[in-house]
Amino acid sequence: MTQETAFLQKSPDAGDEHVPARKVFVKTYGCQMNVYDSDRMSDALSRDGYVATDVLEDADFVLLNTCHIREKAAEKVYSELGRLRELKKAKASEGREMVIGVAGCVAQAEGNEILRRAPAVDLVIGPQTYHRLPEALKRARCGERVVETDYAIEDKFEHLPAPDKAKTRARGVTAFLTVQEGCDKFCTFCVVPYTRGAEVSRPVAQILADAEKLVDGGVREITLLGQNVNAWHGTGPDGRDWGLGDLLRRLGEVDGLARLRYTTSHPRDMDESLIEAHRSMAKLMPYLHLPVQSGSDRILKAMNRRHTTAEYLALVERIRTAQPDLALSGDFIVGFPGETEEDFEDTMRLVEAVGYAQAFSFKYSSRPGTPGADLKDHVPEDVKAKRLERLQTLLVNQQRDFAADCVGREIDLLLEKPGRLPGQLVGRSPWLQPVNVDAKRSQIGDIIKVRITKAGPNSLFAEVIE
Ligand code: SAH
Ligand code: SF4
Ligand code: F3S
Question: Which string of DSSP letters, residue by residue, matches 128-183?
Answer without folding.
Answer: GGGGGHHHHHHHHHTT--EEE-S--SS-HHHHSPPPPHHHHHHH-SEEEEE-EE--
